[in-house]
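Subject: two folds for Thursday's group meeting

Dear M.,

Sorry for the delay on this. The cluster queue was jammed most of the week, so I only got both jobs back this morning. I'm pasting them in the order they finished. Each block is the input sequence followed by the predicted structure tokens. Could you check whether the formatting survives your parser before we put anything on slides? The first protein is the one we discussed after the seminar.
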Amino acid sequence: MTVEAHALRADARRNREKLLAAATQAFAEEGDGVALETVAARAGVGIGTLYRHFPSRDALVVAAYRHEVDALCAAAAERLAGQPADAALRAWLERFADYIATKRAMGNALRAAAASDSPLFADTRERILGALRLLLDAGAASGTLRADVEPTDVVRVINGIWYLPSGPRWREDVGRMLDLVVDGLRYGAPDGVQQRRTSPTGRPKPRAPVRRRAPAGKRK
């Protein structure tokens, strides 16, 4: 391969990555009806370039969805590289919430496109379970997470995010749900007595004050 041909292929790969990133963001922000011209403009390329990489809208939707799953799965190892396993899981669950938000926004477009790629959801589910397994195994090995939980158990619980009503407080509601999930996974872990309660940023979270009951004779 000549240097010129290699440069052209590298340029094509960059354009494809820019289009996928732009499509994922556009679907998340504008919903499944976003115009392909808008995606091309966000990526800084012409509509012809978009169609050379993705000959149909369905092809772009499926590729954008797979791109989002790729980023979600890669995030598991990335989070583990910089923090303890329980904190890494909590941070990864925030990234999972981003994935759910994008998938919801893609809505009908993703369902219609998936009809032409029937193994799509089964394949991506297995990959997500594998990423979650990596985090749970690391937590069990370090003693920061209980070892008697399967990834499928956790996914069944956190998929409840899907059913939370949309609105300005959606992310706040998601955060509370994820806190409960991770606290449950810490419960009973060998290192559970000394567990840190941390936010996704790694800063300690204040504990809620404990309310003590008044003696029976002093209750009003």
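Second protein, same layout:
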Amino acid sequence: MNIPMKPDLSQVQQQQLRLSPKLQQSILILELPLAELRELINRELEENPLLEEETGLNEPDSDDEFGFPETQPGKDFLQIQAPEPDLHAYLRFQLAMHLSSPEDLSIGEEIIDSIDDDGYLTTPPGEIALRLKVEEKKVNEVLEIIKTFEPTGVGARDLKECLLIQLEEKGEASPLLKELIQNHLPLLSRRSQWKKLSQTLNCSLKELFDAFQRIRMLEPKPGRLFSSSTSTYIIPDLVVKKVQGELLIFSNRDYLPRLTLSQTYRELLKDGQAGKFLRKKLSSARWIIRCIEKRTETLERVAGFLVKKQEDFFEFGEAKLKPLSLSEVGKALGMHESTISRAIRGKYVDTPLGVFPLKVFLTGNPSKKGPGFSEASIKEEIKRILKEESREKPYSDEEIALLLKEKGISISRRTVTKYRLELGIPAKSQRKE
């Protein structure tokens, strides 16, 4: 029996989180590295007449009491040229940190060998599976792990996937952004089509512009950060100095223009001569200044806690790094983990031991390693054990694991093997004399 179909109308409610433009700007300013933040500030100075750069500040004539060097005209304070790292070596280093089984490591090596200099996977997982005689599902599982490595977006198969990985990592993959990247990138690049595009997506031109700005901040070629053809400069956000035996942390304020509100335009506002345009620009200028101050305050709070928690690092080096997770920092400071993650991403600190990314002070959870032991400290202990072993009868990896257990460090023989290989130490048979 045929039953005639009738059109059915129904309402579906969907919840969608939309961040206000001001909140989006606040998040952007928090997560931008110092060099990019200066570019943003310079653009704002050009576009907003209510913003001015402060001048005529009293600068010290020589080194101040904290030992800061005098800033030379035309020279960026604390601009340090980074070494030229290799993308594939960096990915292999992360691979060894995340995987331990020989099969997974073999698959991971093959995937990394198939990633080009821009960071894209150039060989389909199916082909890698055939080459290694493993299931394609297994290759995809390892690939998903590699796609969590830095630089964010590495291991993607195309531009769309690369951008989406970055959005997911930032926690900003809104339905509008995902739709634009997956289906409308060519139209988004042509502003003449924006009105038509906003109608198609049922969003305002302002929402479309904000989405465009977010996508512009993503990196289409994550691997090029490791290109040997360009020099990479690190501008530390923070400086750690030892003053009278105490570690103090300071912001690198010299690098950014100091912003203030234009006195000329403020007088116009007082006289009631300003129109809607100037009032809007005043609100925007105040918000920018507030966001930059909040960024500095957040960075100093987070970095101050990390430095205090990892005080032994500044005395004895990486081996003394303590296990510390984002959640621990968040609980201690009363901040959300995502705020801390944004605050430290891409930020560097200049210390008496050199320049380090802030994330180096977060070493994960203690897990089964035992309280107070980070991966770096365990490796140092392995080196110490092997330095004292008998050359006629060197230790096996299993014996090293037992010796570590006696010291309160509980890790498997396989983990000992992995750490030993990462340290470049040969196997027992090769160490025997």
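Two things I noticed about the second structure. The chain has 20 helices and eight strands. The mean pLDDT is 78.

Cheers,
T.
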